[in-house]
Task: structure prediction
Amino acid sequence: MSRKVGGIAGIFLEETQVLVAARKIREMGFLKFEAISPYPVHGMEEACGISRSSIPYVTFVAGLFGCSFGLWLTWWTSVVDWPINVGGKPLFSLPAFIPIVFELTVLFAALSSVAALVYHCRLPHHNPPDIDPDLTSHKFAIYVPEDDKGYDAAQLTKILNELGASEVKKVAEY
Amino acid sequence: MVGVCQKTGRSNDLLYSLDFLGGLVLLAGFKNLYTWADPQFLAENPLIAAKAGYLNTSSFIMRLIIFCGGWVLFKWFIIGNSIKQDQTGDANLTHKNVGLSIGFILFFSLSFSLFSIDLIMSLMPGWYSTIFGIYCFSGMFQATFAVLALMIIFLRSQGLVKGYLTEEHQHDVVKFMKGFTVFWAYIAFSQFMLIWYANIPEETEYYIMRSQNGWLGISFGLLIFRFIIPFLALLPRAWKRNNAHVTAVAFLILIMQYVDIYWMVYPNFFDGQVIFGFWEIGIFAGFTGIFLLGLFTFMQKFSLVPLRDPRIAETISHHVTY
Result:
């Protein structure tokens, strides 16, 4: 059960405004705020102060694991467990096994990346609450949850308005 | 992004004409190079004589003219439109170039495939590999991105494209370079594995030649220096953004492209011995020199960035996410 949290959301109509707003909110010391946009905005990670994700490392390690597992699996099945002479080729014929090794590398790397992504985003936990359906088509928002450090509804409303928000609303808890 | 790269690749039409001239030079020693052009050889080898409908001197030359001529024409129109746009600022020229570029992709991929079959695969007329054209294409593409990366690093270090061609664009080109490194390995391995697995004499001949008389080392060298090292060296993000590192990898790829073509061509001659000397270096250096001459005269004459392209603003703010 996730705790019910509400907050303040400022809705913006321009990409440039939301970038400036995200930077400003971050500089004010908020940590849990979210910038919501219908499409990836260039420079947003930097404006929000999001550091690099660890998913590529997971992918790399899982890929290495899948590669070694594939090599071990093909060796074990065709040399140890059930040796069969195929066309007079050596039992351990690496070229024939490369596709299997490759596929297992990709399979492990890809599935682990998705798993790491789900874990990283804390899915299926849904955060923040629904703010405005237009955020999926043409509007942008900055959302600050009320449990963030230094949260002050009146001050935030004022600042978001100053930053050019077309609308500032208190988002109900869900 | 595309706009910026379009200009850096603009001067290649000279090179296509050179390809054609180089092809014409081949005609001088035609019978020594291409055994299928020798009537006596054909009389002794009925299997190769059966291919004469495609492999004969006049249609070879005709294809050479059509391919190189087509490439030059496409380049002429695409680049001509871009230069015209620099002066007039007509946005329609961009739309025209989109159509032309799609046509060029179709024409080039087909013609380059046949071009490599004509020039390289037919050196060994009894041997065939249906993936050969793609093999050459993938190597060419990988090397293209290496050249592009080197050019971008050079232009940026000279401060000639400040604000237009950024580290973000460079990062994308290097990503492509890595992508096509994998693509080359994929195609090269596909060609090798099927021939190795089926083990049919007329196909394995190609790899047997390249596993004897010192060629085995070069074959493995291709695997290691053209795929494994560039692949690992281009994995981390920070390394893709390090100019010195990318320059080194791009040079490695270009050298391996040379070795690859050498590896495809040379074992067919000189009794399979590995020979390398002044001629091999000199001819390569000559073509590189003419290419760079064409490139720099072009860059001096025309704007490096298509400033009046309607999409230029979009490309400038390009940013690679983490």
Q: What stands out?
A: The CA atoms of residues 69 and 210 of chain B lie 34 Å apart. Chain B has 15 helices and no strands. The first helix of chain B runs from residue 2 to 8.
